[in-house]
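Dear support,

We are seeing what looks like truncated structure output for some complexes. This example has four components. We would appreciate it if you could run it in full and send us the complete token output so we can diff it against ours.
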Amino acid sequence: MGRPREFDADDALQTALELFWRKGYEGTSITDLTDSMGITKPSLYGTFGNKEELFRMALQRYEEHYMAFFWSALEQPDARTVAFDILRGFVQAQTEACNPGGCLVVNAASSCSDAALEIHKTIVERIQVGQKALARRFERAKREGDLPADSNPEDLARFILTIAQGTAVQASSGAGRDDVYRLVDIAMKSFPSS
Amino acid sequence: MGRPREFDADDALQTALELFWRKGYEGTSITDLTDSMGITKPSLYGTFGNKEELFRMALQRYEEHYMAFFWSALEQPDARTVAFDILRGFVQAQTEACNPGGCLVVNAASSCSDAALEIHKTIVERIQVGQKALARRFERAKREGDLPADSNPEDLARFILTIAQGTAVQASSGAGRDDVYRLVDIAMKSFPSS
DNA sequence: GACGTTCTATACCGATCGGTATAGAAGCGG
DNA sequence: CCGCTTCTATACCGATCGGTATAGAACGTC
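Here is the complete output from our reference environment:
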């Protein structure tokens, strides 16, 4: 009942996601958003609440649409394949020509004026969730004899995600995909096997 | 001649540097700056020009005071020591208790509203300068037989700086110094020797 | 076709953004 | 003490920030 909205909320959210991805949370203004989404401010606030809620929805969409590879990589049979798939997945997302460069999470992790403290906390928390999940996967690998008995799963998880975060900065700075792929190959030499 | 200024410009610049370091370029407002520096806006503009010039001066001071280890590391005798010293130096600066977390350059590299495009360009350029210098050092090492003949100096330089950028994100996210030191040790396993 | 509901358009809100005009206070050489 | 210069304090500038009040337009229901 009532007047139907004249825009597709999903399309609009996707547009917002891309803006936040490219310009960060604080670097993206409401006017930027409404202009690109092709809607007016009351429509934005009526549909998405406010800027912070909109960002959180965009973040969730980002994880679902662009970070899905992470959770499927965890299901790979051996630790080395898990690590390699994760790194390749990150690089692919960060350097896709049709995507903004870098990583929405890493870009947002650095923007931290006092007003955006809550956003920053959320971002850090999302990173921790991924890191913990990867560490648990590596613990399992260690139990299964898939990683050496003297290896430290937490350290390895931190290592892999640090590489991913570093490549995000590289991608934001204009590094090419092939450059970063070779970098992943170098990093993987550190990864213990069997 | 004329009335002498009532504050120490160097102290004020240091304060500005720490603010930019912690909150990024756009996350730091003029009011934040004047409050922390203990001076008024006309004094700030009279002494430092404007916000962008102040940031550039802070950036220069940052490189001189906190990134000096980079250039002295380049003078180490072998490539492996160069790489290791650079990584340890970055981690030390990024996790020093009396410093803000992370890296001023990396934090600023991600904040990119339309208004800060020039700052972003400068930041990317500073990263490239360091990366090129390191690549040249590795080229020399290759000529000197210090690195394998089939190694790629540019890729190795990118690898080292990617680790440094990744650890900056980790440090901004609250990782401890020892955690990151162990991470450097893992990364260094990838580094070719002799 | 009137009604209640939901969306849209315009115009506006106080607060803050980076930056500055103006006037007075503090030092110098004469 | 006097200019002259330089810094400081207050008060202000237009623009933009995130967010909203109000009125009208577009639907389904009765």
